[in-house]
Amino acid sequence: xxxxxRMFWRMYGGGLVVTxxxxxxxxxxxxxxxxxxxxxxxxYPFAVWLLVGWWFTNRVLLPLLIRSIxxxxxxxxxxxxxxxxxxxxxxxxxxRHLLRFKCPMCKKRLGWTECLRCRTTxxxx
Length: 125
Description:
Elements (H helix, E strand, L loop, with lengths): L1 H32 L2 H6 L2 H22 L2 E3 L6 E3 L1 E2 L13 E2 L14 E3 L6 E3 L2
Antiparallel strand pairs: 1-2, 3-4, 5-6
Helix pairs in contact: 1-3
């Protein structure tokens, strides 16, 4: 699942770069056209991505793109949507995506899971 971390940084960083380019283009265009309203609004996409982009990428985009995880040792593939159990003993009663699970008892997120075939630890984050 190190792929999830790399994919997160690519998507978040890519969105940051895109919004920065939009910011620069809008700023350049507003100076050429002498439009004060466009000049004031040019920073909004960049600011919104800085505030919401982390959450959006981590909680919405990654679970949509990552459907399964693979054991690094034996290659067994597991679905990411299942009933997960926390290390404190809490077991969720409904199916959730691996990246969206947060224990209501201890407030931890899943950091690893174990392959049922070869008992290898699969790191999530």
